[in-house]
Design brief:
The protein has 203 residues and is an alpha/beta fold. It has helices at 4-9, 11-17, 19-26, 33-41, 60-66, 78-87, 121-134, 168-177, and strands at 48-52, 70-75, 92-95, 107-112, 135-145, 150-156, 159-165, 180-189, 195-202. Helices cover 35% and strands 32% of the residues. The N and C termini lie far apart (44 Å).
Amino acid sequence: MKDQSELAQNIIEIYKKHVRAWTELRGQFLYEKAWLDHFLSLLPDHSTILDLGCASAKPIAAYLIAQGHSVVGVDSSEVMIEMAQENFPEQSWIQADMRQIDLGQKFQGILAWDSFFHLTQEDQRQMFEQFSIFAEQSTVLMFTSEPNHGEAIGNLFGEALYHASLAPEEYKQLLNDHGFQVIKMVAEDAECSGHTVWLAQKV
């Protein structure tokens, strides 16, 4: 059995391997809609949104685009990016690792939905500096995590799927340290398929 660090490093390869099957499994139902609507309600019209872990752009980025916003999507899977480009060729899609990408651009919204929680705890801590670099004053940040501090192994098509989380208190501190104010947080939201969601804004 691989150790946790090896499993964490294997995430990108798992999604590359099962990209089309995962996309079909994910489907088009937008159970995140209420959270996305709250996120969008805090943005100016025609904002540019950074979607970290954008996958094929459907259904989440598709919804953001339909509301009149522009999306810059980042995903580590070349096939995901190809699918996003096919779906929305007028938007910007970049194959890269969210932990290391330097875009030289700031965004009005930053989204890391069902992606950030695949990073190790230390990489998650480092991501808050990335979030801050991509943010301007009033930028809205939304991400999903696990509800409690720890590591967990899920399953995707028979592959061990790594997840990690910090304690809620540490997320709050990291957000505060990087100039973000928590607007809303719900652990294991029953109205959003059990997701733990953080919504914050740069102040």
